[in-house]
Amino acid sequence: MRRQVPLVITFVAGMLMIISYFIPRQPFGGLQNLFNQWFIVIVAFALILGALNLIKVNAEKIRRKRPGWGYSAVLLITFTVTVISGLFWGMEQETVFGFIFRNMFVPLGATMFSLLAFFIASASYRAFRARTIEAALLLIAAILVMLGRVPLGSYIWRQFPMLANWIMAFPNMAGQRAIMIGIALGTVSISLRIILGIERSYLGGGE
Amino acid sequence: MNQRRAVFLLFLSIVFFFGVSTAAQQNAPPAPPTEVKAFDNPNDAGGTITITWKKSADDGAGENDVLGYEILRSMAQETGYGPIGTASLGATNYVDTSAVDRVTYYYRVAARDRESSTLSEETIPAVASPQWFNRRRTNMLISVVLFSFLILWFIERAKRGEKLFIRPLAGLEAIEEGIGRATEMGKPVLYIPGILDMDDIQTIASMAILSRVAKMVAQYDIPLLVPSKMPIAFTMAQEVVKQAYIEAGRPDAYNSDNIPFITMAQFGYAAAVNGIMLRQRPGTILYLGAFYAESLILAETGSSIGAIQIAGTAMPAQLPFFVVACDYTLIGEELFAASAYLSGEPRLLGSLKGQDWGKAVFMAFIALGAILETLGLHFLTGWLVTW
Amino acid sequence: MNLFDRLKNIDRRTIFVLIALSVLIPLFVPIKLRIHVSPPAQGLYDAIDRLPPGSNVLMAFDYGPSTMPEVYPMTLAILRHVFSKDLKVIAMALWPEGASIAQDAFKTVAEDEFHKLYGVDYINLGFKAGGLVVIQAMGTSIPAIFPTDQAGRPVEEFPIMKKVKNFDEIEMIVDLSAGDPGIRHWVMIAQARYQKKVGGGCTAVSAPAFYPYLQTGQLVGLLGGLMGAAEYEALVKHPGSAIKAMPSQALSHAVIIILILIGNITFFVERRRSRKQG
Q1: Whose CB has fewer CB within 10 Å in chain C, the N or C terminal residue?
Q2: Mind listing the pLDDT tens digit for each residue in B242-266?
Q3: % residues pLDDT > 90 (chain B)
Q4: Which CATH number fits domain B164-344: 2.40.128, 3.40.50, 1.20.1730, 1.20.120?
């Protein structure tokens, strides 16, 4: 029973989605929107579960004085402050929540994102080695595109930007397309396995 | 010099002549739109009627003073017309979205200039109705049926016990090896299910793989860490791992604290996972699912702690980052195939074989299309695009 | 450890310091660089340039603060172009943080530089959750999905929205995006289903994925990352933060290229050595 009910729901919902793609007539045509709305509602409830779990795991860590429990304390304090300020004074620009968002959340996010610049450098130094002919080709293409995408390249050779653009618009695009088509077919195949209940391990456990 | 002066004089006289002639003319009412047709908008859920017409002779030509069109509708012939909308200059169609199904409507289109407007002839009656099939998606239907048939056929063959050859994927063999290595070192395995929720197929695929991975890990006494970014994926991950541990006969080894929810903020999540890596030093890290800009931030940190890293995603933009920073990367569709591979179950493997054949059919079509287009024959493309 | 060994295994921290310096130094030492305009950027510029004055341009702000350094400069450059051509801008966001970014951008360009009127020349419809679903719904009715502007005033109060029913009244869509929902979805719905002109700008990382759409003409133009923004700033002849940052970008690219070359040279030298020994 426990296994059958979700499988039946999956089958019915999946089939309805496919049918609604081909039949514009109501009630089929509007099903996708309806299901999307349901999903948003479920997400909201699951988010509450998630927040509770976050509190539980971190409170437990503090109680048992596990290594790094200080971070958990920071998390719980900032969590409480943010929730309370948002609940009681609103979330507009000029509120406490707005202040936290603009002056703490945003810069912290930007800091994490900007780590990319450093990590791209260290990763490419370590990994971009011409070990094989394919790797060498990749390496040459990467350098050409990098040179073409900054003004520096056109100082070295005027045609660099054109060359970079050619690499982007043809070899890159052909590769992207191939990957996209493969992904699309893979998606259909796994969707079919899931709708028909052949693949069921995502429901927990195996066969 | 003389020549220039002559051109200038000619120009002046043209300007003068036209200035006089237009000033002398009265502004005539615009010519009406012609061949006005109204018909049920095809392939929709009803409630819409399409109206098409030929431009007024004064739109872009003639007096060239038409400002736009007004669409009028009535439920009776020759009387009771009221405006329902406007269309811009140069437009030749309008979709009336306020029609009620099974009601008869008549339409007229008026061309409008600054001073007056001229009505077109009345259309023949039109009735809106919902359709049972979107004919523009016939091509889709055919390919879905064909593709599904191929997959089901190979599943059937596999069920009958036929041995099907499927090319091995190095990345997947590495998963088992990676778990083994982590066990030898007594370090945890870290599993990142991507940053999208269960409405993304990549996350579903990831959960299927997580189930297989959890079963392998459950055999050994090492922790499996699964931090989640999305709420539904989080509850799902807990359930999947728990079930897998039960099926592996190790329910005692399951610890829900190892499968926490972190935050829905993208970089907050990345920071938290980086923290987990640096503190808990996992021996093997698996990145399987949908990733965005955090891909390299995670993978590069993982590489700095010397973990074996295996990634898989269907996000083309993130593949290069995983390829440079990880030991193995499953590219696109390989992520979707992974769970079937790991299961070794014939029916699942059969579906992969079917998928490969489907791909072959698509490749044949692409090659054929390219050849035909190069030869200047457009019927195949035309059919595929319009149907 | 000799020099060769050091070059072979440059410490991560050394690399990080080099990158930091290559980004920081050019910010303090102004250098002027020539900007080459790529076809995708030119395509976007031409498409906007050809719109008749008074046309409605829908601008979707589908990005958040973390990608602002890349996408915001192009937002400003595009707005400058749009307002200089007397086009009308209807702004909206599929990302929650996008709505307030639009507000800031309008403050800078529309109010302070062009003295445009809110509600007449531009409007900010704010954020709506749902991504793809929102775009689909806009095809049927924009006022139905955005009944009010960001500040909560009914849209029918504003002259700019008086005649806007759905995509029919929108001449072009410009999506500024940093991921999903973003350019892909606008192309899928607004272009494929409603045949609207769609152009956009995105982070440099995601740009390669959109080249197939450029080639098929489903995207009229594309700005990729800071470079794309600099190209547009050059096109509208209003140098901003992107052009200013170009020297940093150029130098850091050069540092990365040099690092890759060092990595490869040491790799080859070592391989030759080990072959000789073997």
Answers
A1: C
A2: 999 999 999 999 999 999 999 988 8
A3: 53
A4: 3.40.50
